[in-house]
Amino acid sequence: MFLKSRNALNPHESIERFSIMANVDRAYNQVRNELAHVGLLSDGVYLDTVELCISHEKSGGERGYVFEKVGHYAKRGYRPGVIYLPRDLPHQPYKPGLTLMDTIRHEYAHAWYYLDPSFFRQEWFARTFGAAYSNCTSAPYDSWRKLIKKNPDYQAGKKRRKTEATKLNYFYGFLLQDFITDYATTNASEDFAETFMFYLKYRRSLDRFANRPAVYQKLRMVERAVYVASKRTRQLSDRSFRFRTA
Fold first, then answer.
1. I need a labelling partner for 50 at 20 to 30 A (CA). Which of 43, 113, 130, 174 fits?
2. Are strands 83-85 and 52-54 parallel, antiparallel or unpaired?
3. How far apart are CA 131 and CA 153, in angstroms?
4. Model pLDDT for residues 90-132, shown as the tens digit of each residue
5. How far apart are CA 140 and CA 144, in angstroms?
6. Who contacts 25 (Cβ-Cβ below 8 Å, separation ≥6)?
7. Whole-model pTM?
8. Counting beta carbons within 10 angstroms of the beta carbon of residue 246, is it exposed (0 to 12), middle (13 to 18) or buried (19 or more)?
9. Distance (Å, rounded) from C-alpha 220 to C-alpha 203?
10. What are phi and psi of 19, to 5 degrees?
């Protein structure tokens, strides 16, 4: 399902929008195929119930979003648990190596939580990502910063860097040993969504991350969580799906 813009479009804008929508539709269906392949989506079951819509709004910096609670946004047509992409979304890769499909993969992770929050309240999540999904603080990253300041190897290497630029690059080298992207440091839920995005994209070759042990461990834990959840999908395939436990 897609939401149309409230504003009238001129012919040039209509052609451009048609091209964007075609790209969105193609990316959306490709990600759905990936989810079906790993067992999180079956006809009418589990993540098959998640919709994707084009918002009325332009991007405020975000490339996609899922509302857990819509609040006053309900008056503007928004619904919880739906993946929204801004109407001026970038339909070309927005960062080297990342694509529109990656945005949709990421947002499916958030939609999964909305659909089945009890699954994410289990021990595996906080043990893997350092805090509960609902914890919106940067506590895992803050804890990592405290540890890195006490790491003698890091401190020795930092002293050998003479410029701020080389020190920053060195810092990010350490950061990416524990977080799959810099955005993953935002909070536990974004760490999960970014990790899930990479899991889905590289699920057949996760060993490429073996040289980043902490990241690799997170990917393997997400793989395990997907396997466990896929069993629920199979159990629900033969009966009506009604799933939302707060």
1. 130
2. parallel
3. 26
4. 655 456 668 899 999 999 999 999 999 999 999 999 999 999 9
5. 6
6. none
7. 0.88
8. exposed
9. 9
10. -65, -45
What is the DSSP secondary structure assignment for residue 5, as one 8-state letter? P
Q: Is the pLDDT of residue 21 over 90?
A: no
**What is the token pair recorded at 27?**
């990316």
Is residue 114 within 8 A of residue 105, CB to CB? The reply is no
Q: Whole-angstrom Cα distance, residue 174 to residue 151?
A: 11
Distances (CA, A) of 48 to 3, 4, 38, 228: 19, 22, 13, 17
Give the rounded distance of the alpha carbon of 242 from its chain centre: 24
Using CA atoms, how far apart are residues 128 and 181, in angstroms rounded to an integer?
A: 16
In this structure, how many other beta carbons lie within 10 angstroms of the beta carbon of residue 54?
A: 20
Residue type, 246: A
Alpha-carbon gap, residue 132 to 115, rounded angstroms: 16
Could you tell me the two tokens for 225?
A: 């969580």
What are the φ and ψ backbone dihedral angles of 150, each rounded to 5 degrees?
-95, 0
Averaged pLDDT of the chain: 87
**Cα 88 from Cα 6, distance rounded (Å):** 13
What is the C-alpha separation between 105 and 119, in angstroms, rounded?
19
Which residues contact residue 177 at a Cβ distance below 8 angstroms, ignoring those fewer than 6 apart?
212, 213, 214, 215
Per the CB < 8 A criterion, the answer to whether 120 and 203 are in contact is no
Question: Angle of helix 152-160 relative to helix 139-149, nearest 10 degrees?
Answer: 70
Tokens (6 digits) for 215 = 């990241």
